[in-house]
């Protein structure tokens, strides 16, 4: 990509037939997001297409490209949702995780392909907005214009995860409950992967080196965990408290005071280990 990028930057602006160029670019976006193979020449050609649109004359077509990308990703995720919505509950975690791994990796590739749009249009637009409203930044929501990777993750969260979130969490908590009873789930890696996806979905929000002067964008110094905390951790902690509270009451009824204290110390240590495991 590096050589192609340098070549693209060396090209001068030119007039662009947006409908024609986007008509060729859009199918490739879906191919990339589905992890279908692409030759280096095809990749370089698509990189040039993005660049040409962004520097087109008489005026850049970056805003139109961004809007078209949003619609493209939305349609793609809606198609994925139709598939996942038809999956029976006993296969939901497996199918979701398989789908997520492809989408996550594909999003990374598309994010890189549209790197010039991210740098030329998204960051500049947000910088201008940030300067205009810098004094009110703490009162404003995150900007609607986001880099392509972040946009794709937001669309995944809103169009695919949220409609099935309760089902996912209930299945995760049920599997964790079985694990506590000594019944190790056969798909333990899948369970860990689904939980990790709640963290990965916010990775594109994480810009530790981005200057604070950017304005309205929240500048995290640690990877954000907001969605993970709201979607999974709060319910996991509640179920954990309920389970171990009941277990402690049973131990108190069955054991002597000294044995109860020993068992309580062991449980507290084990719970801390479980919490750490769920976050790693």
TrEMBL record:
Lineage: superkingdom: Eukaryota
Every Cullin N-terminal domain range: 22-263
UniProt xrefs under InterPro entries: Cullin (IPR045093), Cullin_N (IPR001373), Cullin_repeat-like_dom_sf (IPR016159)
Xref: Pfam families: Cullin
Single Gene Ontology BP annotation: ubiquitin-dependent protein catabolic process
Single Gene Ontology MF annotation: ubiquitin protein ligase binding
The entry's keywords: Ubl conjugation pathway
PANTHER family given in the database record: CULLIN
Similarity comment text for this entry: Belongs to the cullin family.
This protein's name: Cullin family protein
Native source organism of the sequence: Ancylostoma duodenale
């Amino acid at each position: 990509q590096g050589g192609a990028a340098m070549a693209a930057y060396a090209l001068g602006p030119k007039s662009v037939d947006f409908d024609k160029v986007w008509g060729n670019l859009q199918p490739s976006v879906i191919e990339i997001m589905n992890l279908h193979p692409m030759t280096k020449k095809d990749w370089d050609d698509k990189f040039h297409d993005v660049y040409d649109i962004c520097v087109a004359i008489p005026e850049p077509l970056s805003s139109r490209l961004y809007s078209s990308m949003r619609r493209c990703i939305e349609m793609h995720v809606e198609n994925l949702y139709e598939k996942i919505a038809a999956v029976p509950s006993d296969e939901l975690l497996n199918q979701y995780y398989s789908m997520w791994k492809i989408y996550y990796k594909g999003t990374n590739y598309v994010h890189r392909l549209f790197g010039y749009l991210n740098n030329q249009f998204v960051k500049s637009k947000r910088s201008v907005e940030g300067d205009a409203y810098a004094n009110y930044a703490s009162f404003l929501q995150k900007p609607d214009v986001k880099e392509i990777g972040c946009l794709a993750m937001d669309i995944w969260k809103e169009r695919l995860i949220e409609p099935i979130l309760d089902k996912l969490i209930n299945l995760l908590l049920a599997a964790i409950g079985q694990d506590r009873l000594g019944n190790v789930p056969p798909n333990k890696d899948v369970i860990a992967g689904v939980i990790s996806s709640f963290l990965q979905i916010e990775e594109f929000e994480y810009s530790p080196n981005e200057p604070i002067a950017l304005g309205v964008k929240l500048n995290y110094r640690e990877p954000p965990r907001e969605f993970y905390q709201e979607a999974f951790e709060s319910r996991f902690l509640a179920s954990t408290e309920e389970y171990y509270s009941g277990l402690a009451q049973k131990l108190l009824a069955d054991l002597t005071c000294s044995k109860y204290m020993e068992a309580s110390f062991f449980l507290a240590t084990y719970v801390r280990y479980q919490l750490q495991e769920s976050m790693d």
